[in-house]
Design a protein that fits this description.
Four copies of one chain form a homotetramer. In chain A, 46% of the residues lie in helices and 9% in strands. By secondary structure, chain A is α/β, with parallel strands linked by helices. The N and C termini of chain A lie far apart (39 Å). The relative contact order of chain A is 0.13. Chains in contact: A-B, A-D, B-C, C-D. Chains A and B meet through helix 3, helix 4, helix 5 and helix 11 of A and helix 3, helix 4, helix 5 and helix 11 of B. Chains A, B, C, D: Keywords: Lyase, Schiff base. Chains A, B, C, D: One of its GO terms (molecular function) is 4-hydroxy-tetrahydrodipicolinate synthase activity.
Amino acid sequence: MTRFTGIIPPLCTPFRDDFTIDVDSLRRHLDVQLAAGIHGVFVLGSSSEVAFLPDRQRRVVIETTVAHVAGRVPVLAGCIDMTTLRVAEHIRVAEEAGADALVVTAPYYTRTHTAEIEQHFRLLRSRTELPIFAYDIPMAVHTKLDRAMILRLAGDGVLSGVKDSSGDEAGFSALLLGRRDRGLTDLAVFTGSELVVDLALRMGADGAVPGLANVDPAGYVSIFDRVRAGDLDGARREQERLLRLFAITSAAPPERMGRGSAGLGAFKAAMKMRGFIDNSVMAPPQLPLNDEELLSIKGTLTEAGLL
Amino acid sequence: MTRFTGIIPPLCTPFRDDFTIDVDSLRRHLDVQLAAGIHGVFVLGSSSEVAFLPDRQRRVVIETTVAHVAGRVPVLAGCIDMTTLRVAEHIRVAEEAGADALVVTAPYYTRTHTAEIEQHFRLLRSRTELPIFAYDIPMAVHTKLDRAMILRLAGDGVLSGVKDSSGDEAGFSALLLGRRDRGLTDLAVFTGSELVVDLALRMGADGAVPGLANVDPAGYVSIFDRVRAGDLDGARREQERLLRLFAITSAAPPERMGRGSAGLGAFKAAMKMRGFIDNSVMAPPQLPLNDEELLSIKGTLTEAGLL
Amino acid sequence: MTRFTGIIPPLCTPFRDDFTIDVDSLRRHLDVQLAAGIHGVFVLGSSSEVAFLPDRQRRVVIETTVAHVAGRVPVLAGCIDMTTLRVAEHIRVAEEAGADALVVTAPYYTRTHTAEIEQHFRLLRSRTELPIFAYDIPMAVHTKLDRAMILRLAGDGVLSGVKDSSGDEAGFSALLLGRRDRGLTDLAVFTGSELVVDLALRMGADGAVPGLANVDPAGYVSIFDRVRAGDLDGARREQERLLRLFAITSAAPPERMGRGSAGLGAFKAAMKMRGFIDNSVMAPPQLPLNDEELLSIKGTLTEAGLL
Amino acid sequence: MTRFTGIIPPLCTPFRDDFTIDVDSLRRHLDVQLAAGIHGVFVLGSSSEVAFLPDRQRRVVIETTVAHVAGRVPVLAGCIDMTTLRVAEHIRVAEEAGADALVVTAPYYTRTHTAEIEQHFRLLRSRTELPIFAYDIPMAVHTKLDRAMILRLAGDGVLSGVKDSSGDEAGFSALLLGRRDRGLTDLAVFTGSELVVDLALRMGADGAVPGLANVDPAGYVSIFDRVRAGDLDGARREQERLLRLFAITSAAPPERMGRGSAGLGAFKAAMKMRGFIDNSVMAPPQLPLNDEELLSIKGTLTEAGLL
């Protein structure tokens, strides 16, 4: 059984112009990430444009990643779909492709309920041997996972981990405390925020899944190492540098496009500028950044010493 | 080119205990609907548990329906998925299966924007010859379709229809007026509400897509016929009867399960009680109604003269 | 005991440049309304900028109105504040000033609950002899009134009426049906929408409280009269004319100002253009409409034959 | 000019059975707080039931507090109302009563806009000499304050401080960074959370306004002192102890009452159990805790060593 810890970037997915997976870029991006010292990779998370990928492209992403990583770090695979039977299909693919763990959200599109979400995780548990992470992302699924339910499912061996992208740091702190008070030492707890990673680690989180690590993996690894070494001031400074870098995600204004396009577009543009990938195209119907926005991103990267 | 009008029920999907499609029940349910005089069927809408159906089950639903209906009424097929490329895959299946029109929501899971939603419909338009209906269902996708965008897309030949399940009757009225003022006579406009069908028809809607028609198709056909015949009082009385019948959807309280399970569970239970289908099981992770709730539904059906 | 029925406009409040009440304009506006045949007036509702008025200005509005109307039609007074004790103070003022009925929302600012909202109305009932209308306006107070609670409170003599500005026409229809089924003939039910008045009356509503009647009271009186006379087509045409007129409320775009300012600013600008009031200034911190927006409103009024 | 720093509890307001202010209890509670070493008090914030207090009771609270504190620590006064002119009235009272600073939210009840919120603060600035804190509390007012606006207003001398109760710790971190990058050394930044105070201080916050300090002021003072002294582990342990104590706010379940009543009811019950105040009654229409809930709170206090 893999033990999960450290910086596990939610990988962006490089495309060719026809929206097939650019596997060369994907491998190069993986090399960049591994060279920076990341401790795992999370494919097919929200940052991967998983919501935009047809099933066969999803399979290419995970197969390419598992093959290229070749066991050096664990590979977590998002199994993102609306309800149990559809998620179960993605789980089967992830298993076949050799993923080390699965990441699953609450049901969405349907109007759900905590009792149903709990049922969802329990049923999926019965269909796979792989560790399951609960993915708490109300921004996407419009439901917040209930803390007592998570702890109950962890106690029953249903959940092996949590990726908390809810932005509720107080709730995250209470989750970590609940884990300790119940002795649930096997439950891995990760923050999905890129903006308070040092604080999450200080609170006892096992690690982070920061989207911005696609652009600067070394920065997040440095935060992790510094907190481990007790250099909290250094970790804070690094986090603040990355908080400034995060400004690239608002280069495109909300009047012009969705916050999804603006954020992922900025990540991909920066990844291309840094040479990690060849093509920053995003899957439809997302809109491309314009020249002015790209120039602003370039400026921010330069200030951050990344170009 | 099919012209769309009248009562087009969003069909519930009968399952066997293993959650495969109960095609015998589906055919029997279609016979019941056709015998009642409905003017079209909408498969793979929200009432079909489309969010719960794996792709191969979706295909069975649409193929079975198209074959069984055999051209007697148009078959609309929901192509419900998160973004453009994924929806495009469902469109291909619906085309192959012989659907007469496609029903498509705004993107979801991702944080979207009107400019991206518009792009979404335009790109899909370029991929199919079939009429596309925009499905306005903020309850599921958490975005309301912009009225000016709908009218613009209709003017450009991108949209052939709208199914408005937003519950915003004032906006619906403005949409109908906008259609008339712009001379968009080819745009079919349907209400997705089951509760104000007579009023929607009075405002100029072409028809309705009422979930409750799964339980009482004749009632909705009667409303349509009466409004056509100028019997507005009779239509109102019939709508009020159906409004009372709708109480079955809250037999299960919100403390116990999601409003999706409660509503669809009630429809399926009533369909079984009325002999339309054999099995009222719902796809996971939805919870089943309990005996007390089923008894309450039976009582309401009896009062309504449907048992 | 006054019986409430018909068109009861929620009066806008004319100000002088120092934001004191322009009582001359208020009286002139009342004369315009009464001459148009309205059946009551509602002062200190949301359209009055009640949220912007200090207590002493609120008192001036209601005293001026009661004195000027002089019993010709009933005067309803909004008692809009966050919780019970604060609302009770406004009730005392409204009683002293001679209002005929009180209009009260759910608690807001605080995170409330149906049991507390019910308690709120019951406590207020014990403090006044005047009829109390429940004001269902989730847009402002972020809570929807529970239908079963309203009917229970009406049955217990706590509520004498409802003004439903929730935009939920299906729920409104169910409320009217619930009233009939329980024999609550004393409960007056009004729609607060200006866009579906004919339909609300058709469903059995006693009347409407349309903000747009500040600009065109005769139009709404005509809808009421036509529905009463069975001329449903005529009523529909009139409602459609007013729906087009309602476009003035979006002359100012959402990028530039709040939807409150845009709507009330348009009403006041149109009232001034039509000579009903002298000054269209709005209370701070609302922003004024600009010349282009005012010109657009003028154009819409001209098209509507109102200038 | 007062410099604001440290632990500034948002005081709960003790009532007599007739809902007048229990000034003896208020003074005793102030003594408890001051003895614990708190660095300021915030009266008429959300925890004070300000939304429930008539104006004359608000005045008693602030006058009693200013007189009793007698300059030992600064007194911040909430001026909580819907819009500019109404807030201005509360400001006048707070000035007369001798408050040291004012705390003001965005407009509410009305549908507002950042341009209007900015106008709101600028207009209020022109009406008082006292420092103004922006109170960011979307839970109550349903709008999040824009970070760029806050920094702009601070740069222009409009705002002297921010109390951030939004729960958005990433945004809070960005605000602190923005303050530093712009050299806005005069802007006091406080977290309104009680659950991540040590982390907020670590990020550079000047202090905290924790509701739970009504129950355990010494705990929060200890966190502040420890962070100052560099004892981050000790601060974390203390914060975790208080996080466990916070469980009292969910003794009453969400099915039974609003989260406001449940939280403030728990604070007041605990304050009474600890002898700080005589009466734990809450203003209407809030519901009282029942015996079982009180017993649970007593148990939590005992475990925490506070009884």
